[in-house]
Amino acid sequence: MGDEDLYGNIFSSLIDGIVVVSRGLGIIRGNPAAEEMFRESLESFRGKRIDIFFPRQPAVLEKMDRVFNTGVSYRDLECLGFRKSNRTTFPVNIAISPVSDAENRVQSIVLLVKDMSLLKELQETSRQMDRMASLGVLVMGMAHEIKNPLVSIGGSAQLLCKELASPEQKKYLEIVISEANRINRMVDRMLDFTRSQKLSVKKTNIHKVLEDILILEKKSLARKGGRFVQIYDPSLPPIEADEDQIKQVFINLIQNAIDAIPKEGEIRLVTRINTDHPVKI
After folding, report:
1. Helix (H) or strand (E) holding 106
2. Alpha helices in 164-266 (DSSP H)
3. Distance separating alpha carbons of residues 106 and 69, to the nearest angstrom
4. What's the start-to-end Cα distance of the chain, in Å?
5. pLDDT digits (tens, 9 = 90+) for 50-61
6. Last residue of a domain, one of 197, 218, 238
7. What separation in angstroms does the CA of 25 have from each of 62, 139, 196, 228?
8. Both 97 and 56 in a single domain?
9. Are residues 78 and 158 in the same domain?
10. CB atoms within 10 A of CB 77
C-alpha cells in the first residue's frame, strides 16, 4: 500500500469530522464522518463555502482567515454546526490547522470537527442530578419542619376528641386526626422520594374514603351553591388498595370537579360493580 492510499484510509477512518478548506473558504474535501455529522454527501457540499456548516458565526470564519494569514493554529473553539437537511443546530468543538507548501505558505486549512451533542446531554443530565440532590436537601429540611407541628396537631386533636361528648364534633376531629396522619405519611414519602415506593395494600372501603373526602370538601362546593350526590352500590365489597394513594387520587378528582363546575352545579359520585371491572367509580 502506497503512502497516498495509507493517508486516504486514515482520513476515511477517523471518527471525527475532517473538512479541508481552501483560501477562499470553499470546501475541498470532507471525510465520511463529516458527511454523517452534517447529514450531507461530499458531492453536495464540495466547492461550497464552509459557512454552510457554521452559518451566522463570523468569529469562526475570522479564525479561519487568521490561520491563512498567520499560520497559527486554533483548538477547542466551541460553536454550532448546522444540518441543512432538517435545519437543526448541534454543538461542536473544532480545531483549525494550516496546511503549508514547501515554502511554508498556507495553501489550505484542515478543520477537525467533534460533535459535542452527547457530552452536552451528559452535562445537562449531571446538572439535573445536582439540582435533584439540592432539592432532596431542601425537601428533607421542609419535611422535618412540617412533621413537628403535625405531631402537635394530631396529639392535640386526639386529646380534644376524648373530652368532647358530641358525636358530630368527634367525627370532625377524627377526620383531622386521620388527615394529619395521612400528611405525615406523605411527608415520610417525600423524605425517600429518590427510592422506589412500596404500596401499602390492604382491604379498603371505598365508600368510607369518599365520605371522608366529602366531609372536607362539601364547604368548598357549598360556596358555589353546588351539592354532592352520592349513589353508592351497597353490595360493593372492600377492595385491595393503598388507602393513602387512592384517597389522594379522589381528592384531586373531586377538587378538580369543584373548580370546573358552574355555580349551583352537581357532582355525582357513583359506585357499582360490573362485569368488565371489579369496581367502577
Report:
1. strand 106-115
2. 167-191, 206-222, 243-260
3. 8
4. 78
5. 999 999 999 999
6. 197
7. 11, 55, 56, 75
8. yes
9. no
10. 18
17 with 111, same domain: the answer is yes
State whether 7 and 109 are in the same domain: yes
Q: Which H or E run includes 69?
A: helix 58-70
Burial class (CB within 10 angstroms; exposed 0-12, middle 13-18, buried 19+) of 161? middle
129: cell is 442530578
- Angle at CA 198, nearest 5°, toward 197 and 204? 125
Cell reading at 238: 372492600
Q: Which residues, including other chains, have CB under 8 Å from residue 66's CB and lie 6 or more apart?
A: 72, 74
At 90, list the grid cell: 448541534
- Return the CATH number at 148: 1.10.287
Angle between helices 167-191 and 243-260 (to 10 degrees): 110
* Gap between the Cα atoms of 16 and 11, Å rounded: 10
Residues making up the chain, counted from first to last: 281
Residue 57 belongs to domain spanning = 3-115
**How far is the C-alpha of 141 from the C-alpha of 132, rounded, in Å?**
14
Cβ(108)–Cβ(99) under 8 Å?
Answer: yes
State which of 80, 115, 150 marks the end of a domain: 115
Helix (H) or strand (E) holding 269: strand 266-270
pLDDT tens for 70-123 read 999 999 999 999 999 889 999 999 999 999 998 899 999 999 999 999 888 888
Give yes or no: residues 181 and 121 share one domain: yes
Q: Please tell me the pTM assigned to this model.
A: 0.50
| Cell numbers that stand for 271 in this block | 359506585
Q: How far apart are CA 96 and CA 74, in angstroms?
A: 5
Q: Does 97 lie in the same domain as 34?
A: yes
254 contact partners, CB below 8 Å, separation of at least 6: 213, 214, 217, 267
